[in-house]
Structures are given as C-alpha cells and as structure tokens.
From TrEMBL, chains A, B:
Organism: Plantactinospora siamensis
Upper taxonomic lineage: Bacteria, Bacillati, Actinomycetota, Actinomycetes, Micromonosporales
Record field: transmembrane: none
Protein's recorded name: RrF2 family transcriptional regulator
InterPro entries in alphabetical order: TR_Rrf2-type_CS, Tscrpt_reg_Rrf2, WH-like_DNA-bd_sf, WH_DNA-bd_sf
NCBIfam families tied to this protein: rrf2_super
Amino acid sequence: MKLPVSTEWLLHCAASLAQLDAGATASAAQLAAYYDLPAAYLAKQLQSLVRAGVLTATTGPRGGFRLGRPASEITLLQIVEAVDGGSSPYECREIRQQGRGALPAAQCREPCILAAKMAEAHEAWRRTLAATSLADIIATLPASTPRRTRARLTGRP
Amino acid sequence: MKLPVSTEWLLHCAASLAQLDAGATASAAQLAAYYDLPAAYLAKQLQSLVRAGVLTATTGPRGGFRLGRPASEITLLQIVEAVDGGSSPYECREIRQQGRGALPAAQCREPCILAAKMAEAHEAWRRTLAATSLADIIATLPASTPRRTRARLTGRP
C-alpha cells in the first residue's frame, strides 16, 4: 500500500504556509520553486487541500494560497485524507459468503472479524495522524525557521 | 493507499487452515473452491505465506498447506506483510533538502518531523495487527465452525 508521492508535497506545503504572517499568501509557482516540484501538477494537488478547507485560494495579482483555518485546527490526517481519500486500505469483499464454505447470510450480519481487525488498525493509524496539528509541527521547528521560510518562499521576510 | 485484493484471501485461508486438525493439510484447489477464488493465482499468493513461514507446503498425493507454526504465534501483521511487504505507505523523498527552501544537510540529520509522524502512524497500524493472532481469531468463532470448516474444506470432518 502506497500513499501518493504528492502526500509529502502537500504536508510540506501546508506546513510552510502555516509559517506565513496572517493574511499572507504564496502562489503555486512559489511553492513549486521552494521545493523544486513540478508547478502545474502541484497546483492541481493544492486544489484538493482547498476542497478540503485546509487551504483557501485567493485570486488577483497578490493571490495565492493560505491556510483555510488556524494551524491548530488542521491535522495531518485532514491533509493526508484530502490527498488520498479516507477509505481503509483493506477491502473486504465478503469472500466468507462465497464458494463451498459460504456462510449463511444469518451468520454474516456482523462484520467479519478479520475485516473488523483491519478496520481497527486503520483507525489506530487515523487517530495518530488526527492527534497532530500543523501548529504542533511548527512548534518543533527552530525559532529561526519561520522567518527563513517566509523569506525564501515569498521573498518577503 | 490500497492493500492487494489477495490480502483478504490470505487472511481467510490462514484462518481456515488454523481450524484443521494437527498435521492435516488443504490444497490450493480446495482453498480456491472453498472461497470461489481463482486457483492458479491463489496458489501463487499462498507461496508468499510459505516464504514468510506462516504456512508450510507439503508435496505428495495428500500434500497441501498447513500452518507453519502454532496459530497463537501467527499474527495478522505477519500475514498482511507477507502479502504486501512491510514498508510504510508514506514515502519521504527529502524534499526539505531541495529547491529554494533547501535546508542545509546539518539541519537534516534527524528525520523530518512530518516523516516521523507518518512513521508513528504506521507503527500504530502495525501494533494493532501484531496484537491479534490466528488463535485469537479462531477463539471468536462459534464452537460449531471448525468442524464445518474442516468438512467443507477438505471433505473430512
């Protein structure tokens, strides 16, 4: 199971945007240059964060992207699921109900115990990512980092 | 991110083999008929469980597959990782070290905090699956199930 390569891009882009001053924005081209990523494809991926409400896109000469809500209210899970969707990596096709061993429908009203355990593991994964916000991430950075990020990302300190 | 469809097949096959009497085996064809799965492809997938030591393959007229160790020592994680490998779904390509924002190597001796959080989530997923053995799964089944499984899988009660 693999997350899209753009998962890393969007986690980093969102963390960088979380270091801008309130109201400031960065364009897709600026973010692409900052991380040396393909600009057109990155721009498309950033839209998935806009649709999820993680980012807001503004238009006009100074338009670009900024956080859609406070960094403390954006979790890593919201970013990852904006990129990849929220479905479990395990797919239960109910093979317990097919073939020579098929169980009667009456015995299949509860989810299969194997599917339930796989769902439990996915929930543990989700809980871990939901427990960390962008504000938590920024709080771990050296104190000098946000100023450097702003300067290199937008050209404005 | 998606696990292979055969993940469900192999979890169920291993759980069924865990219900056989000691020393009894079931062939790939029997397992395929039991769950109505494509026999040749299933046989290939079962080999991944043999390579992982989860199953043992025996040859000869009554040959087939049986558990490679006691059901209490086979975890769901071992089965899932035999199918899909053990790597994390998140790939860190160190984009923090590229582009205009590239961090100096000296600041990148520690893993990126975002990669570390993604790894933590993967470990939470792994821990959940490692905490459940095939014996735990069998213990949840109705008391009449193993006899039915044996009869329908191998034709021997």
